[in-house]
Amino acid sequence: MFLLPRLKNFTRSNSPARKLFSPKSNSFSSTPHDDGFFKHEMDELKTYYPLMVQDLTDAISQYKQFPGLLERFPVLMDYTVTHDDPYFLSSAVLPLYFYKAVEESDKLTEENIKRACLMSWAYRTLETSQIIVDDILDKSEVRYNKPAWYKKDGVSMELTILDSHYLATGAYMVLTKRLAGHPCCLDILDLYAEEMFVMIIAQYMDIKKLDLKDFQKLVRHRFDKALYVFNGSARSGLYLANVRDRETHDCMKKFSVPMSRFFQVQNDFSGVFEEESKFQNSCPDIVNGRNSWLVTTALKMANPAQRKVIEENYGNGDAESARKVMQVYEDLKLKDVHDRRTEEFLGEMREIVENFPERIPKQPFHDIVRQLALNKLYS
């Protein structure tokens, strides 16, 4: 039930902007980016990942008399936190991306990039602490194309729970250490804590079986589970660049909230319609009866016979029932509905970005909107 983010690379405010998106149109035409949308961010994150691991290892070094303790946590980090594919690292690449987008060019020093990377890795580590528990709640066997942490040989359920707490508390310790003295340190800590809290609340929807009649009124809260992806990332980038005025953060919320919600739409759509996606291929939302953009849209559009098929088969837990629901989705042409919603999204976001305060460079935000609309943030 946990998000698997999907995004990719950009241009700095101090370097020539990639003309990926024309703010005067909603065009889907694009220039190929073989290096990947987040290539530079991934390179920078990889440079400072060992320092993140060292910070967390140092935090427990006073307990080195416990056999295997110091050796255990680098293994935990390498298995659950980091990855070579930016698809699985949106909570790390996005804060760094947005920081670089809004920071003044003369302040993009090596030291400031290092601090931004460590802040980003801390955010990713916070997300991971919840993913570990989420896999237990979901009884998920696989995460990132390998056994979920609690399913790994030699990892007990008891240790998994402690590992989750270690990552969460350790991330906050790294933040307080690496952002010490920064004027917005407490703002970032408060923002990240709030995003994690909202994520936990949203997860209740996935572990509580809901009636289909409740889906429509609760779908917005389903989308809230994705708020951390863009809202926490974009606004922490502002704070790290010492942008803390209310007006700018309110404008950023107008950008980040619909971005996060459309991110969830893309997740829901890809999990069902992308045959070779990095999602499971068994339509888990349909099989497990989860609320999603697809089912709520289908319920609004369906005739009585189609609605009956959904009501009788959604969440039954078997592939045959899922195929019947999928046929309704096909009959309703939900792919076309998704395409129209994407066009609307592009127009809405273009207007929002164009109304940003003068202080905020617009092109990097136009670029990332376009990549999300194309569902190619990470390709």
From TrEMBL:
Gene3D superfamilies: Farnesyl Diphosphate Synthase. Its cofactor is Mg(2+). Transmembrane segments: none annotated. GO terms for cellular component: cytoplasm. Keywords: Magnesium, Metal-binding, Transferase. Pathway: Pheromone biosynthesis. Pfam families: polyprenyl_synt. GO terms for biological process: farnesyl diphosphate biosynthetic process; pheromone biosynthetic process. The keyword Metal-binding applies. GO terms for molecular function: (2E,6E)-farnesyl diphosphate synthase activity; dimethylallyltranstransferase activity; metal ion binding. Belongs to the FPP/GGPP synthase family. This is Terpene synthase.
